[in-house]
Specification:
Elements: H1 3-11, H2 26-49, E1 56-61, E2 68-73, E3 76-82, H3 83-97, H4 126-132, H5 141-167, H6 170-178, E4 182-184, H7 194-224, H8 240-259, H9 261-264, H10 276-295, H11 300-321, H12 332-356
Parallel strand pairs: 1-3
Antiparallel strand pairs: 2-3, 2-4
Length: about 350
Amino acid sequence: MNNSEIFHNETTYLGGRFDLDRADREKVKIVYGNIRDRAQDLINAARRDVPSLPEIHFDFILNGAINAVAFKSNERYFIGFNTGTIFLLRCVIGRMLSDSRAFKHVGNPEVERGDLKPLEDYVPDAEMMYKKSTLLTPKDPIRRAYADFLQDQAIMFLVGHELTHIIHGHVDYLRAQRGQKQTAELGGLKNRDQQERLERQCIELDADRRSIVSRIDSLRFTFDDANAPNPPWRGKVQHPVEMVFDWAISIDILIRLFGDLSFSRTEAVDSAYPPLLLRDAMFFSAAASTIGEIWGAETQPYAIQALKRARVETEMAFSVAARGIGLSVLDPEFVREGPLHLEVLNRHWMTLRELLEPYEFH
């Protein structure tokens, strides 16, 4: 069997492989084809950096829910994105940039609508959202470009996250030690004990950290490339933190869609991720630390401010696009339990990383 056939067989229970050749619209073929090519380029780059890394096939699963998987079959590795992940990212980001009240720093927001209702009827199912909501596209060309950028960066971060599940041995470890054939981002932990849930949360945070480092390093290459095109919403980029700011917005949106129970509808007891606010805080810390290592300590204070501004802009956009869903309220339980949970995860990680070492690719 070829890679496409193996992928389809292994994902049949989720919906099976989405065959682009049979897509009913040419635009769908182009959009998904571009995403597949970008993802495969990132995978190929990782294989050049990690010579022992075997072939990895990227594809789409015909499923309206938001999710992504990494798995091994026939001694080959695979990464799959639900089609719902692509559609719902596009749905939410397009809704934000089509509203004159969101992301006022981008392009000309005055040409966008100011009377859009929030996505109060949002459900994490692409088919249902397609039937009851209009897929909005910003009118301003600069805001359209920004929407495309945010979606691209979010998707590439998620590709890097899934790649880490393979490179750092998560897929092989969970397969060998836990009997889990696939590493899915949402769900799949029902009836697992607390030890296994902590283990998965550590694994997800490890995947986040590596993808953060990889993407920020990619921003560095872009900033240093004199021939790289200037983003239309900025003109010439004067300082790397400008790029960090835009990139951070894309990740803040992605983390929300995968981590906010109001969006993902994933039961907390069934979650592979730590609480949303804790994951967001750890992303912030890892990003600030990585920026300091790459661009120097003198850049870090400016980067921290950029990350904070990105979070505020994202919160404001969500308050407009999906009223009542936000990160800003720190409830007493989180303030009390969040730091303790982080300590537990850090202790658990010290043991887990030694168990993962035999399965890693170097």
